[in-house]
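Entry:
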Amino acid sequence: MLLLSCREEDGIDFGKESRNETRFVFQVSPEIQTRAEGTAFDAGDQIGIYVVRHLPDDAPVLSSSNNYADNKCYHVVNGTSLEPATDDDMIYASGAGYVYTIYAYYPYNDTISDPTNIYGEVKTVQTYGTNFKKSDFMMAKTACTDGSSPINLNFKRMLSCIEIVYDKIGGIVPESVALYGTSTKYIVNLQTGELREGKHHYYINPFLKYAETDGQCFYRMIVPPHNLINRGKFQVEINGKLNYYYVDNFVLQAGALHTFNLTGQKRHITYSAFLNSYAGGSVSSMGGEYAARGDVYVADGQQYRVSAKADAGSVFNGWFQNNVLVSKEADYVFTVTEDVDLTASFSKADVKITIDCQPSREILEPYGLPFFAEHAYPYGGSLRLHGELLANSPYVFDGWYDENGVYITRDDEYVFTATEDRHLTAKYGLQIFSLSASSSLWEDDPGYFSGSHIDSDKHPTFLKKGQKIHITGNSELQIFINEFSTPVKITENKLTIKIGERVIWENSEYTDFIFTASEDATYTFHYSMALEGFLLEGERAGITFVMRRKAWIVE
């Protein structure tokens, strides 16, 4: 009831439904390019028809089933007229106010389950005319409001036709001509008129020979529109021998006739790889396997492609003919007019060495660092890198590190062989302190001295929690006048790390260690040293307190 109510609101008179039922009259357009091989349908050709009935303001929607007419079969009579194959295939127009959108296709297929996804496949052997015709696919779409007037179905071809014109040499006629590396399957959407390539097949498809003259043979084949790439080639059999004619990246268009001219005149193409300085590389032709060399026979006047591929760490220098550079492109396409011997030259690629430093080069550069940022070296060359600094630099060398941040060596000189790209980092730490002091006792000084003391707070340093300081060195006395009757005794030799007055770390027995900041703060490094001893009358002393203590930030 709801459906009937809606239709009455649309203004359709259902009382006239039965009285207006008229038979559709279909015909095909005469003398147009409807067939791969001609301009007209043959009597008995079968055509499938779908009809969608809809209101004028609505767009037609073609469904898999329950359309107004589903896959009805009509056959051609008298060249242009269409008649239903059976009474069940008869289509009638009924009901005023409707639009009928008609979708037609050739050749008829009674197994179609979805007109928006029609799976088709050309014959893999088209030597016979019937197979050639059955490989075709055409479609037409039109709309009308009255089925009584003849409805013209103007078909368009959806597939491609390839024509081979073979120039005979010495009157020899090929036993067969085929295409290797082509698609055979396709999918058509009658609703949108789109065709897309189906699953790829690399079958050999014999062509139909449809004409011959004294000097030429003509062959044709129907294939889905697609791009013939890489391995696509025509195969011509003469006296049991197969000759190949390669197709390089050619796009087959829907509804188009593409003509290829082949000849029995063949040219010899040889190609090889020449490797310099332990380089690696290989060559191929027309998308074939890569190898050290190859040779083929190619038709005179044909375009041909050879390709070169360098191994990792090597570079392609170019294609050479008779030691003359003919192309720097790895894919070299040329027209064959003579026998050709080509050589692809390869050599080892330069190795890119990149040097970074931490902290940045801008900070370190005033101190005379001798490195480059990035440089190309010949493969196999020996490199010697130096990480030393000038004597007055406040930085110290921490070590060389590789691309993954892994430590290599703490020696400032690093020697290696350039066999691959490298990204090395020289890391430096800020030297926090290096202290020394001196004291002397002469004959006019008291004979006894004790507690002579150096106490230094140097270089307050702000550290973030977890940041690390590398501390190394020691403290000692250097006695320049060694005439003491009794030895001088060191009573204190200590490092104390403080935050303000709070002691964070203290030790007197160390030479090299890592201190980790326990919190964000300004740390001071407090050194102290004391000694005691006796001088007899007349003795003189010259003593230097030396603190060989250095520290630098390592993280």
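The chain has three helices and 46 strands.
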